[in-house]
Amino acid sequence: MALGDLMVSRLSQSSVTVVTNHRYNDDDCASTHDDSRMSIIASPTVASGSYENLSAATSMAYLPQTLVLCDLRHDASEALDIVQSPRWRLKERMKTGCVALVMCLHITVDPPDVIKISPCATLECWIDPFSMYPPRRALETIGQSLSIQYERWLPRARYKVELDPTKDDVRKLCLSCRKTAKTERVLFHYNGHGVPKPTPNGEIWVYNKNFTQYIPLPVCELDSWLKTPAIYVFDCSAARVIVNAFAELHDGESSGSSGPPKDCILLAACDIHETLPQSVEFPADVFTSCLTTPITIALKWFCRRSLLKEFIDESLIDRIPGRQNDRKTLLGELNWIFTAVTDTIAWNVLPRELFQRLFRQDLLVASLFRNFLLAERIMRSGNCTPISHPMLPPTHQHHMWDAWDMAAEICLSQLPKLFLDPNTEFQPSLFFTEQLTAFEVWLDHGSEHKKPPEQLPIVLQVLLSQCHRFRALVLLGRFLDMGPWAVDLALSVGIYPCVVKLLQQTTIELRQILVFIWTKILAFDKSCQVDLVKDRGHIYFIRFLDSSDAFPEQRAMAAFVLAVIVDGYKQGQESCLEANLIGVCLGHLEATQPCDPPPEPLFLQWLCLCLGKLWEDFVEAQIMGKEANASEKLIPLLSEAQPEVRAAAVFALGTLLDVGFDSGKGVRDEEFDDDENIIIEDIMIKSLLDVVSDGSPLVRAEVAVALARFAFGHKQHLKSVAASYWKPQSSLRTSFPSMAKFHDAGTSTIVSSHMGSLTRGSPDSQPVAREGRISSSLHEASSGPMQGSPLSDDSSLHSDSGIIHDGVNNGVVHQPRPLDNAIYSQCVLAMFTLAKDPSPRIASLGRRVLSVIGIEQIVAASASHTPLAGLVRSSSWFDMHTGHLPLTFRTPPVSPPQTSYLTGLRRVCSLELRPHLLGSPDSGLADPLLGVSGSERSLLPQSTIYNWSCGYFSKPLLGGADANEEIVGQREEKEKFSLDHIAKCQHSSISGINNIPIANWDTKFETGTKTALLHPFSPIVVAADENERIRVWNYEEATLLNGFDNHDFPDKGISKLCFVNELDDSLLLVASCDGSVRIWKDYATKGSQKLVTGFSSIQGLKPGARGLNAVVDWQQQSGYLYVSGESSSIMLWDLEREQLVKSVPSESECSVTALSASQVHGSQLAAGFADGSVRLYDVRTPDLLVCATRPHQRVEKVVGLSFQPGLDPAKIVSASQAGDIQFLDLKITKKTYLTIDAHRGSLTALGVHRHAPIIASGSAKQLIKVFSLKGEQLGIIKYHTSFMAQKIGPVSCLAFHPYQVLLAAGAAGSFVSLYTHHNTQPPR
Known about the structure:
- Helices cover about 35% and strands about 20% of the residues.
- It is α+β, with helices and mostly antiparallel strands.
- The chain has a 6-stranded mixed β-sheet with strand order 2-1-3-6-7-8, sandwiched between helices. Strands 14-41-40-39 form a 4-stranded antiparallel β-sheet, with no helix packed on it.
- Strand 4 and strand 5 (about 215) form a beta hairpin.
- Helix 9 (about 330-350) packs antiparallel against helix 12, helix 21 (about 535-545) packs antiparallel against helix 22 (about 550-565) and helix 28 runs parallel beside helix 31.
């Protein structure tokens, strides 16, 4: 399957992991949360065997397949992964600029230390020197031929030849070459076949002018003439001596200096005690022939050792048709294969840094070392061992030489036919096809922990040719998808220049795979953005983004690539702006037609991120974005189902806000009207305020960052509003003109309660007389004095609004015109909301936002009974007119949140002597961002959505959709357990409850147990107290597994505990009485608990309500969390979307005191009220309310409410505080069909088993009663099983095990007791 099709089929499922019999298909529309969404496909295992008593429909209802809060954003990792800087880039590329060829042959005169055999090798550069006369002519011809052979590898270099030179000739040659090459590398090739072996000191020989003496040339002199960088080739006997001499020379120099080692590379023909081969099988300069004409000598050497020697005339090898650089010819094919083989050998045997230095840094060096591998193979057959510096490991027996031999044999076998019939077509080798197949096999079975694929260099070579390019790109894409380690390997082998060049191709079928490959590369190394812009690669991706035939997932990748290109790179921003990237992105954000398929969330997410990065800190792009009405297209995305899309839209809007620095040098005034800017900014801020209470921390974090940017640009006006926070609570609404509007909007109404608690915690705050309206400009604020808290008893000072001068009046800082005061009031309230967020990270961001307007966090030591958490106004105010100019105000840095401390907020102005700012206009109100120029901006909180989103593309995207077999197996075991025990519960006759507990747990809670919960598949009970301490206990082993605090405000209390995803890796949902919801993972492992998500679930209070008193229930079938309390509605939170999807009017003047969601019907919900009434809702129906009745005669609140066991959607059990338990079937009648007077008042808890026909009620009068669904009392529990038979405490909570007849009871004391029915053991 082509990678494009693969991406379509698999990336479309990337947002969710689809597991067989494990998860429903997501439905994004809130109105369609019905039974079709909750349908279950029972596996064959579940539908057979011991479950015959349960029908398929029953098992489907009892085993919800919904799985929530398991996406990448929920892995509870706050910190981003630390990415190491990539190592694949070469430190610098080198080029060989000059080649010096020194030929010491002295033809017809043999050196005195050489005894030649007969017949003897004579060929030099494939020329017989004795075939020409005079010998000088042969020498010149050989020198010219060697120059031509080198030019094939480096045609643009300068070549200089010295034939039988003197020492002075060599000196002049070397100096001339260094002068020509400048800082480039110089190649020095020495042929010493006509002189003696090098001396033991490593001296080579040259001649005197009359050729009567051999003159030694020390390598130190040679090195001083050529300097570095240089590469030396020594083709002579005992050449290792020269290499050793160079090594000693450089080692001595490097030990005496602190500079970098010299860049000197040496290639030598043989070892110390070896002489060059003299067999006629080889040319005399076999080493040089291997380095300069590898194909010719390799084929001749192979042909003599194969059966082909009987059929092929060796002279044909010298006439192989084609050119080396034309891969469609026989010679080009052989050279291509040879390059691939030698690269592969080097890649697999050399350290990576050495491979890059020798095979990727310099084209000539790479060619010489490829050929050097061949020289080692051939010369070892002649009892010679070529030497190199740096030293290479032996490669002559590498198995890739077998592949070369096979390819050579196939090509050579065609030679006779090609010469006999010139029209015969050359048949290419199957080498690359077979190697790609081998690479594909590795991809099917390889991994990071196995040996890397040895074919990776071959894939690079294949990309150079069109015939295998598409398949190679597909396989390369699969390899890169395996992780950053794979991308690093591919880039290290040299893939990067090739994929850069491929962007110039217009081939349609390559586009999608190239986009995918570039996605993986840029996810690994952002620095490639510079090369892309330099080569105009951004145009390629913009065209792809705007193409009509690309799939949304592929366009998302193109948007990601473009986002990386513009990320923090001004030239990239300018280039993409010029190429109309804004118009292209906004065009895709246009509202789709009803008949169009829904937009892909990943695509929307990256369109927003791309836009945000494009105009981040880039005024021209911001102006163009506003002129193109970008905000109108982005704001609708704030209500999208996927939190990632909402967060990305907030990011894009936030970076579009004016942060107060005019880097455009007047562009703003010239091109964009300030009034228009105010209107647009007003619209954007209002839309951002609507998502302050979004259910996803990912979104709220971006809102906090956006508000910080806004606050930085408008801090004078926001400070004026914030300065009124210390007024008494009765005047709070007067101080905030938009308070009533903000309250009624239902967006962040909880702010008022937070605000109240904060201001009430400020005993030292004093009323301040102030003008009725808040000044809307800096000038007005400066002229409106008011009385403030004194610095000392006799000091009179002005308010903060009268002394704010934060602008640095040097022409750099641009202060935007103010918005409406109502917006500022709402922004301040929103900042307070964020500062008290259930998520610690968001709360920290919120406090940083408040610090921008001069309100800082304070941290006070915690007392066990001190619930102090408030805004404190410091008494330190400074009068600008008293003349104390040496003193300026500075806000202390934000302190990090600590679990053992109580966190508050205060307005603080500390005194600090700063003589270097004498007379500075900055003197006045504390400001943590005081400074000059752009350094202030660095203190603003930074967005994380972009970097976090980039991590998505670093992970495998093409993996199969099949889930981990282990996870599926665990799920099936739990389903089997569940259905087996459900059947037992439904068909068992329970005669009574044993009043002797099977386990007693002293929780050590000082305030008693508030709520308890039994784990369905492990012997675990979870309990919590009023101070929101949570403890997890194993009741079989009687051991405490874990204990932790839900959060740092112990005065709230926990409303309910629930298990989310109980059939999978369950999460612990903890709902606080203040409406905060926190969901934990790994809660049963000591110290390992992690917060998955947290949010405030209630928005809007009834008039006059003192507290929220939240009540919640979780419905796994629908993925809904139902929340209500002192509110006029019941809120439906979709935890998959992390969004409030519906608000159901309660249609009652009383508050909701109990909620119960049906666990078998995903749309059913029952609510009990403070007046004793009960209402049944169906969230699928337009009217929502199905039935309303008042089963309890006395006006007492409903304490407990639950659906009865079974599949009937309208059978309910309700218990009131008066002590009566009512049984209703609302499908038939609104009246009760059974009443149990369980207690005479003081009923505090009701427990209804999910599947067994049994209920339990608890009383403050220290007893528990157990009944059947027919009203029969099955037991009563009054006493602990101790020697003194002490009575149980007032019952606070009751919870049944979902699949066992096992009851957990918590009391006002610290004990939690577990009871079971007669003759039953606890589940194991």
